[in-house]
Amino acid sequence: MSYSPTEVRHKQKQQKKNGQGKKKKEQVMVSSSPKEMNPTLYKLIEIVFGAVLVGIAGMVIGGQAQYARMWTRDYSAFFAALCGIESAMSAIRGKDDITNHLVSGSGAGLALSFLRQGFKLRPAHALSSVAVFAVIQATIYKVKETIKSRNAQDALYTEARAMLSMLGLEEYEKNFKKGRLTDPTLPLLTDRELREVNIPPGARLLILDHIKRYPKMVNRK
C-alpha cells in the first residue's frame, strides 16, 4: 500500500508527536517520588512530621501538655537545623556523603543544646550533644547506604533467584552471589562454573537444563 507525500509527512508528524508525549509521560513517572519532585517540600514535611511525633511522645512520657509543647519546640528547631544544614552542605559540595551528615548532626546537636540552656550553655554539654548527634546521623547514613547497596546487588540476581525458586533450589542463591553469577551470566553458565561455586551435581543438572529450556535466557546469547 503506497501513500502520497502529504500522507507520509502527516504520519511522520503524528509519530513524532506521539513519541514526545510518551517521553513526557515517562519523565513524569520517573519523578513521581515526592523527594525528587520537590526536595524543599519533602524536607518541610519531614520537619513537621518529626515535630508532631516528638510532641506526642512528650505528652505520653510527661503526661502534660507543657511537655508536648517543650519537646515540639526543641525538636522542631533540631529538625529544622538538621535539614537546613544538610541541604546547604549538599548544595555547596554538590554531593551527599557522610561528611554532610556529620556536619548536619553536629550543627543540629549544638542548636538543640543552645535552645535548652541558652547563654548558660556549658561547653561539656554542647560537645557531648554535638558528638552524640553527629554519630547518630553518620550511623543512619551508613545504614541507608548499606541497604541501598544491598538492594542494588539483589537487583542483579532477579532472574537467577526466580529460576532457583522455580526449581526448589533457593538454598544455592548464596552460591550464585559468592561466584557473582549475575543474570547476564546465566546463558553462559556451564557445569564448570556451577561446580566452582560448590553446587552439587543434581542441582547443576537442573539449573543447566532450565537455562537450556528457558527461551528468554537462550535468546540473550
Structure write-up:
The chain is mostly helical. The protein has helices at 5-30, 34-37, 39-62, 65-93, 98-117, 123-154, 158-167, 173-178, 191-196, 201-213, 215-219.
Q: What low-confidence regions span 5 or more consecutive residues with pLDDT below 50? A: 22-37
Give the structural class: mainly alpha
Radius of gyration: 28 Å
Largest beta-sheet characterization: none
Shape: elongated
User: What's the average pLDDT?
Assistant: 75
Euclidean distance between termini CA atoms? 37 Å
Element-level helix/strand string: HHHHHHHHHHH
Beta strand count: 0
* Number of helical stretches of at least 4 residues: 11
Beta-strand residue percentage: under 5%
Give the % helix: over 70%
SSE topology:
Elements: H1 5-30, H2 34-37, H3 39-62, H4 65-93, H5 98-117, H6 123-154, H7 158-167, H8 173-178, H9 191-196, H10 201-213, H11 215-219
Helix pairs in contact: 3-4, 4-5, 5-6
Quick take:
Helix content is 79%, strand content 0%. With 221 residues, the protein is mainly α.
Keywords for this structure?
221 residues; 79% helix; elongated; 11 helices; mainly alpha
